[in-house]
Amino acid sequence: MYNLPKKTPEVKKFLLFTPGPVNVAKNVRLAICKEDICHREADFSFLLRRIENKLLRLFEIRNMSEYRAVVITGSGTAANEALLSSAVGDKNILILSNGEFGERLHNISVIHNKNTFLLKFPWGDRLDLGEVETYLRKYKIDILMMVHHETSSGMLNPLEKVGALCLKYGVMFIVDCVSSVGAEVIDMEQNHITFCSSSSSKAVASYPGLSFVVGKTIAFENLENLPQQSTYLNLNKHYQFLKISQTPNTPAVPLFFALEQALDNILVEGLAQRYLDLRYKANFLRQGMLNLGLKFLIDQNDMCSVLTTVYIPSHIDVDIFRQKLREKSIIVYGAKGCFKGRVFQVGNIGELSLDDLQFFLDALRDVLRGFDRLETGIINTIIKPVPTFLGESFEGEDLESPATV
Ligand SMILES: Cc1ncc(COP(=O)(O)O)c(C=O)c1O
């Protein structure tokens, strides 16, 4: 339960140590203020074509003529729902899940596809590939969809191994790469991936509000033969409009300008350098947190380079802890589902300098020490959780009714 503050708080600058949204670069912030253009004019068509080309380069597609990238106005879920409502039809689809976002894929799929199957592993556990193979051998599965980076735990699921199984059993492979694109290599060609979904606001480091589906041209062409079970998220329609460098509905044009700038930033830096930089920052934070005596939810070898999921020491209330960091202008994530109250999550994407990371580690040390003093009775004041205005409890699913203000 949360209470909205009586007065709208002044929004100050926060350092977003989250898996997205992120602190965007200055040139991305400025890009959104470019000229007003009409999306039915050539100006927008050129912009869309440039973005498509840059997205294919982001995915390091070698045979560019065999892949297309559809951009959708809507957050990452829009791309996932476009895929699940447009690319399956009456085929058998298996969803692999080891966390919140795998479960969400399943929840979307059952709405649109009667032949949806689920192979569910405990949150924070690796996918059991032996079990996956047994399932594919035993049952006729046409499509397999999974999350690449399961953001709820920070687990990076193995594209290469699942892709090889899909190839072996003749299964179409679709991957939710919402929180990994821009931070990890995603080789669609080598890993036999037909479609990938992702979004603008995570490791791509632009504003929230755009998502995209990158896929094989031949698979996009085939959508025409499948029932399209959504109007706004009709992927075939998006694809047909893409062919004339247009979108079916009014796109959020300023976000397209911002996305193009964010893609330019990555491509100018170079993908390899960007991946190295993020990995370095993740390791810097991880080492700093280990030095403070903190423990991680999963093995470091299984982590993506954008996020670290950290156990909250047992004497600390995670909401108060997050509030204490917030007072130091730092935002970290709470957790979802079975991890709620047990862990917090620290992202390292967006405009975070090494000084910012050190500032975070110093602030974290101070906040933890404050709790230690409380624990040992040096400070006797009782701290009540302060209702947060921008807390993770605003994320939807877990909300209770807000109190009347
Ligand atoms: C792996 C993954 N998939 C899907 C989503 C949903 O994206 P959105 O909240 O942008 O709709 C998220 C959001 O964090 C995610 O991390």
How would you characterize the overall build of this protein?
With 405 residues, the chain is of the alpha/beta class. It has 2 domains: 245 residues, Aspartate Aminotransferase, domain 2 (3-Layer(aba) Sandwich); 110 residues, Aspartate Aminotransferase, domain 1. 37% of the residues lie in helices and 15% in strands. The strands form 4 sheets. A 7-stranded mixed sheet has the order 2-10-9-8-5-3-4, with helices on both faces. Strands 1-12 form a two-stranded parallel ribbon. A two-stranded antiparallel sheet has the order 6-7. Helix 9 packs across helix 10. It binds pyridoxal-5'-phosphate. The site of pyridoxal-5'-phosphate has 11 residues, from helix 3.
Specify the structural class: alpha/beta
Q: Report the sheet with the most strands, covering strand number, pairing sense and barrel closure.
A: 7 strands, mixed
Give the neighbour order of strands across the main sheet: 2-10-9-8-5-3-4
The shape is: globular
Looking at CATH, the homologous superfamily of the largest domain is Type I PLP-dependent aspartate aminotransferase-like (Major domain)
Q: Report the CATH architecture of the largest domain.
A: 3-Layer(aba) Sandwich
Instruction: Report mean pLDDT, rounded to a whole number.
Output: 92
What separation lies between the terminal Cα atoms? 13 Å
What is the helix content? 25-40%
**Strand content range:** 15-25%
The tally of structural domains comes to 2
